[in-house]
Automatic annotation (TrEMBL):
GO cellular component, one term: mitochondrion
A GO molecular function held by the record: aldehyde dehydrogenase (NAD+) activity
Family classification: Belongs to the aldehyde dehydrogenase family.
Active site per UniProt: E302
Keywords: NAD, Oxidoreductase
CDD domains, alphabetized: ALDH_F2BC
Span of domain Aldehyde dehydrogenase: 63-525
Organism, scientific name: Solanum bulbocastanum
Coiled-coil segments: none
Name this polypeptide is given: Aldehyde dehydrogenase domain-containing protein
Length: 535
């Protein structure tokens, strides 16, 4: 990802950038970081030195209150306390935002300006985000709970990279000239689809915004974006920078609010031409139904996963332990493509389990603004309770709890890194998307067996394979029913690599050239030729 791969963030030798000193004021910060096994994850917190200046809806280039005047609190997951109160959009606000986007598409300059001019605005926006990297990263960590290092050195730079990537595509989108059987000139036009409705999740607020907004703008569309109610702050911050870069009013509109109100209104709106959603499979089904029952708008879905991470008998166990640990515990385990089913060959299984347990017990949990912290809090009380419920179900099954299994401290949403061994496919922890720091380790005997077991799920988002044997890698790559297969690596998300799932992990692809198709219509234009020199 960007200049640094996310996997590099595993190294405990990494330090926060020197700029971090200006981003937080420490009130008696402890001299050492607590491990997950201590009584409290965070005794004294760092106060982020970043201002929350944008809490209103963005409609037609202006930050405005919701029509109802209602607000909702966005919380600091380290404490459960309120960061700010944000305007709560609902049906009337979605109607206003869609009307602004429609006018901007039908009458405004964005789809009519040259693709080169659109790309210049997107590049200027990327430069502004890069200039404000540290403030944006601090806001993302504060609202989401992810480690500041991850936000500042990986996610914000990747956000910038994605917009530069799509800015590069803007003036390279074109149709084809198609040979016909008779005297006709045939060409295809690739036209913007219109008003795009986009609904993003809370686990990677900035990156999911880039995955959707970037290609939609490059293709000349206008947008209504609904942010997750848990993490509305960074989208509003960067949207202000977009208008500073010269984005015309109404091209990008942002409605913060809740799924059953604002989300449902956007999904079912008759004047939205295209819908993109990232979130749970269950919510994705509802979104698809609403889109179908309204104006049959096309829908791109990036949904849940229960991804296998397969460690073969020839593995370097120490390396495999570290990579499998990263594949699961990255971002507090709150990753749709997390390697949440760790399959280990029986010849190295016992050694792997012992070392995986030891690695989890070394994982540093605490205030994500503190130097050296690998894992912050879960996003909110609902997720916190859900994860602990799955851990209890794992305890009550015949799985072996190797370490962890409980909350940390009395404040905030911190959970111990947890490892289960001897997991069986019929257990809830093996079937369901836990979305938390819970590693489930399975034993397998041969490649055919593990392919069948890995594919025995309703999901098909991603998979990981760890082997030195190219033949084994090729067999697994072609046998696994997943949208992405990482060989001896994991969570590599370069801008040009398409991402999406098989089965109930979604439809369509995001990122790369494939994502442009989501936001284009193809029109065939046929013209007769009279006395052509050639056909």
């Amino acid at each position: 990802m960007a200049a640094r791969r996310l996997s590099s963030l595993l190294s405990r030798s990494l330090h926060l950038p020197s700029a971090s000193a200006s981003l937080g004021r420490s009130h008696g910060v402890a001299r050492h970081i607590n491990r997950f096994s201590t009584a409290a994850a965070v005794e004294e917190l760092i106060t982020p030195a970043v201002q929350v200046n944008h809490t209103k809806l963005l409609i037609n280039g202006q930050f405005v209150d919701s029509a109802s005047g209602k607000t909702f609190p966005t919380l600091d997951p380290r404490t459960g306390e309120v960061i700010a109160n944000v305007a709560e959009g609902d049906l009337e606000d979605v109607n206003r935002a869609v009307a602004a986007a429609r006018k901007a598409f039908d009458e405004g300059p964005w789809p009519k300006m040259s693709a080169y001019e659109r790309s210049r605005i997107m590049l200027k926006f990327a430069d502004l985000v890069e200039k404000h990297n540290d403030e944006i990263a601090a806001l993302e960590t504060w609202d989401n709970g992810k480690p500041y290092l991850q936000a500042a050195q990986a996610e914000v730079p990747t956000f910038v990279r994605l917009f530069r990537y799509y800015a590069g595509w803007a003036d390279k989108i074109h149709g084809l000239t198609v040979p016909a059987d008779g005297p006709h000139h045939v060409q295809t036009l690739h036209e913007p689809i219109g008003v795009a409705g986009q609904i993003i999740p809370w686990n990677f607020p900035l990156l999911m915004m880039a995955w959707k907004v970037g290609p939609a703008l490059a293709c000349g569309n206008t947008i209504v974006l609904k942010t997750a109610e848990q993490t509305p702050l960074t989208a509003l911050y960067v949207a202000n920078l977009f208008h500073e870069a010269g984005l015309p009013p109404g091209v990008l509109n942002i409605v913060s609010g809740f799924g059953p109100t604002a989300g449902a209104a956007l999904a079912s709106h008759m004047d939205v031409d295209k819908l993109a959603f990232t979130g749970s499979t269950e919510t994705g089904q509802t979104v698809l139904q609403l889109a179908a029952k309204s104006n049959l708008k096309p829908v791109t879905l990036e949904l849940g996963g229960k991804s296998p991470f397969i460690i073969c008998e020839d593995a370097d166990v120490d390396h495999a332990v570290e990579l499998a640990h990263f594949a699961l515990f990255f971002n507090q385990g709150q990753c749709c493509c997390a390697g949440s089913r760790t399959y280990v060959h029986e010849r190295v299984y016992d050694e792997f389990v012992e070392k995986a347990k030891a690695r989890a017990m070394r994982r540093v949990v605490g205030d994500p603004f503190k130097k050296g912290v690998e894992q912050g809090p879960q996003i909110d009380s609902e997720q916190f309770k859900k994860i602990l419920r799955y851990i209890r179900e794992g305890r009550d099954s015949s799985a072996t709890l190797e370490c962890g299994g409980d909350k940390i401290g009395s404040k905030g949403y911190f959970i111990q890194p947890t490892v289960f061994s001897n997991v069986k496919e019929d257990m809830s922890i093996a079937q369901d998307e836990i979305f938390g720091p819970v590693q489930c380790v399975f034993k397998f005997k041969d490649i055919g067996e593990v392919i069948n077991r890995a594919n025995n799920t309703r999901y098909g988002l991603a998979a990981g394979v760890f082997t030195k044997n190219i033949d084994t890698a090729n067999t697994l790559t072609r046998g696994l029913r997943a949208g992405t297969v990482w060989i001896n690596c994991y969570d590599i998300f370069d801008a040009g690599i398409p991402f999406g799932g098989y089965k109930m992990s979604g439809t369509g692809r995001e990122k790369g050239i494939y994502s442009l198709n989501n936001y284009l219509q193809v029109k065939a234009v046929v013209t007769p030729l009279k006395n052509p020199a050639w056909i």
